[in-house]
Design a protein that fits this description.
The protein is α/β, with parallel strands linked by helices. The protein has 10 helices and 17 strands.
Length: 384
């Protein structure tokens, strides 16, 4: 085949809008069919975005022009649907997390390797100019030798605004598995693989109340820790501490700070594709007093380089990598390692000890500066 790679969706819930807005604008991919358990919803989205076909998951898997399946189902069936896509001879891009346990995700990656097919895993926010500019700055030695990172995502929880928040407090979710992938994926893209994890977890309340929508006032149980504090030890020697909480009245979101021997780098929210990047250099002389310490620190802005788009960037980068016969960056090994980190954090919180990880990843290269999402590059024969 030549030209754009054909894409089909399985699952067209809320998050499908941002995927469709972006993938419909990238010349190197073409969305040909949308599938959902609710076929009326699939039709509505197909009509909204001008997609030629709609139907069920089986229709997507059987479509001859689909080369990449975008799996936007609920986390509990991510691994199952991705496996079905591989069995149908399709590459697959799955929303995060890649799955909910190590065995099924390891089996999925083996299945894909044996079939000669690709697995891509969200978040692809790490491929955006925000994290990528910071990654290049660190590689260029802006902060010297990287030493440690601090990240934070804390607020009072999605039950404040979500009309159906119970699933976000159920097994397989909570702040760790819902929001953790953004932070840990950013960290492993910058520092490399994690060696060991320690964590503490707690439930702010055993029961929560829906505060928005038609079911406001209804209560539901909290099945998993609604606050997690995680320490990660990286194989290259760096360390990180991460707070993930649905129990904090103080809203502090998207904090990623990386400190090295020659400065501290402040990154954008890893749940976005761009934003402010700045670093603070060490003082070159003693301040007059401790009160002057903060005042004398200078925030040095770093120009963000690259085109800011949105979700779907990883699908595009994977499509080009397939065509070019190279590894894609937001790959299944990274997704599996990030899942391993989070499961190890759960286990550490239960056991009260460090948990050593078995999984690892190769270093993830930075995105090329000339990567243009809106260029048409797939004009020759497409690899399978």
């Amino acid at each position: 085949m030549s030209g754009p790679m054909g894409v089909g969706f399985i699952g067209v819930g809320m998050i499908s809008d941002t995927y469709l807005e972006n993938l419909s604008s990238f010349p190197d991919v073409r969305v040909v069919i949308l599938g959902d358990i609710d076929t009326d919803r699939a039709k509505a989205q197909a009509d909204k975005y001008g997609i030629p076909s709609h139907g069920t998951a089986d229709d997507v898997l059987a479509h001859p022009d689909v080369q990449i399946v975008v799996n936007l189902t609920v986390p509990a069936v991510h691994a199952e649907i991705s496996s079905r896509a591989i069995a149908a001879g399709k590459h697959v891009w799955t929303e995060k997390p890649i799955g909910l346990d190590r065995d099924s995700t390891s089996a999925l990656l083996r299945q894909a390797e044996q079939a000669g097919l690709r697995v891509g895993v969200a978040p692809d926010t790490v491929l955006g100019p925000g994290v990528q500019t910071a990654k290049r700055a660190i590689e260029d030695g802006v902060i010297g030798t990287p030493l440690f990172a601090s990240t934070s995502m804390q607020w009072q929880g999605p039950d404040l605004i979500h009309p159906n928040p119970a699933f976000l407090f159920a097994q397989g979710a909570g702040p760790l598995l819902d929001m953790g992938p953004y932070y840990f994926t950013a960290l492993v893209n910058i520092f490399g693989p994690v060696r060991a994890v320690a964590a503490l977890g707690l439930k702010g309340r055993e029961e929560r109340t829906v505060q928005a929508g038609p079911d406001a006032g209804a209560t539901f149980p909290v099945e998993v820790p609604s606050t997690m504090q995680v320490l990660t030890a990286f194989r290259a020697g760096q360390q990180a501490q991460s707070l993930l909480s649905f129990d904090s009245p103080l809203f502090r979101h998207g904090v990623v700070e990386i400190s090295g021997t020659d400065g501290t780098l402040v990154l954008p929210d890893p749940n976005t594709f761009g934003g402010r990047i700045a670093y603070v250099a060490p003082l070159d002389k003693a301040p007059e007093s401790l009160a002057d310490l903060t005042a004398e620190q200078q925030w040095i802005e770093i120009e963000q380089r690259g085109t800011v788009t949105g979700r779907g960037l990883g699908v595009l980068e994977m499509a080009r990598a397939i065509h070019e016969g190279r590894d894609h960056r937001a790959n299944g090994a990274v997704g599996h390692h990030v899942l391993d980190i989070m499961l190890a954090a759960e286990e550490s919180a239960l056991r009260g000890e460090f948990v050593t990880l078995d999984s690892t990843i190769e270093p993830v290269p930075a995105m090329p500066l000339d990567f243009d999402p809106f260029a048409r590059t797939l004009t020759g024969p497409t690899a399978t």
